[in-house]
Protein 1
Amino acid sequence: MTTPDFYETEQALSEYLLFHYGSPAQNLPWAFGPVSALDYPARCVSECLEVVRLPARARALDLGCAVGRSAFELARHCAEVIGIDYSHRFIEVARHLQQHGSMPYAYVEEGHLTTPAMAVVPTEIDRHRITFEQGDAQDLRPDLGLFDVVLLANLVDRLREPRRCLGRLSDWVRLGGQLIVTTPCTWLEDYTARSLWLGGFEQDGRPVRTLETLRTVFEPHFTLARTLDLPFLIREHARKFQWSVALATVWIRR
Ligand SMILES: C[S@@+](CC[C@H](N)C(=O)[O-])C[C@H]1O[C@@H](n2cnc3c(N)ncnc32)[C@H](O)[C@@H]1O
């Protein structure tokens, strides 16, 4: 199922709690599987964030935070983190995790057979640094302030109007601040009208790729510091997985 409402469903909640908080063995019960694709929400921070660039008491914004793992990881390095997601369900659960540190759930083995599990925020993370709120990344409340880090992990190809969101990001990133955008470039008309895709089509007889459009949108305000290929694995059930490779780009605000 791939529709915008997917992120309010029980299936999405279970898949994303496992994706964000599940152990390697829970996410990938096969010794021959792609272990380098595990722990993606944490790796979006550990592999992309340049910690040395952060000022004291840094502020971070995680747009499309889902059930919150990357926002918690940002709090290892930043004094204040705001996580925003359009899904009421995800934000309700992220807030529960922020307040209580854990949340019981179940993940699918096969059909209606599930295994009970507990999502636990790593205990060394100071959860008081994080707040979660429901909101639209394309239309953020104007009083959010400036950030030293803005992360969009696997969000852009799920937006109705990606350019509208990306074109405004320079307003939120402090000079010298970092903008981290990761995307598997899975453009689907269920989420984004074909005319608004950032890549994956031909124009004037030549292919347009997402990276090229990101450059066009960001280069007036940002310098591209790095690109990375980040594999990730989402388990649907014990015998079905989505293995993807996100394009990660790290931009520095000029
Ligand atoms: C593919 S998931 C990625 C979630 C998370 N960043 C991760 O890497 O696991 C896309 C997320 O974006 C959220 N989302 C979709 N449209 C949004 C919007 N307009 N504003 C904020 N979040 C949105 C969805 O609810 C979902 O949590």
Protein 2
Amino acid sequence: MNITKQIKVVAKRSSAGLGLFAAEAIKKETWIIEYRGEILTNAEAEAKGGKYLFEINSRKTIDGTTRANTARYINHSCLPNAEPVWHKTGMWIKAKKNISSGEEITYNYGKEYFNAMIKPYGCRCAHCAVKKN
Ligand SMILES: [Zn+2]
């Protein structure tokens, strides 16, 4: 599959700080946006630290701190509408279901990140917010 079309997205306020929202309807299976950044070894990433480290596998991590990486605004959800998938040369966020224009785009950050960075403070994703009320 070729990624030719630029999907329109917009960063704005969400329940968990800034989030990334669809600015057009996105069909299931669409490659939405690439998680861009410098590829580091996991050791380099650990030494560097930061909020936007995306572990690709047991050896490599993307440092998504760069402003060019709009995908860094995507928040975690326990019931997400998108998922990260490696595609050829990069990590892409792909639609798991049809997403309406105006809907927030989310993916699951994974168990390790969740337990270390989200669970201690309470998850603020829409799915968990509904459960609490
Ligand atoms: Zn949650």
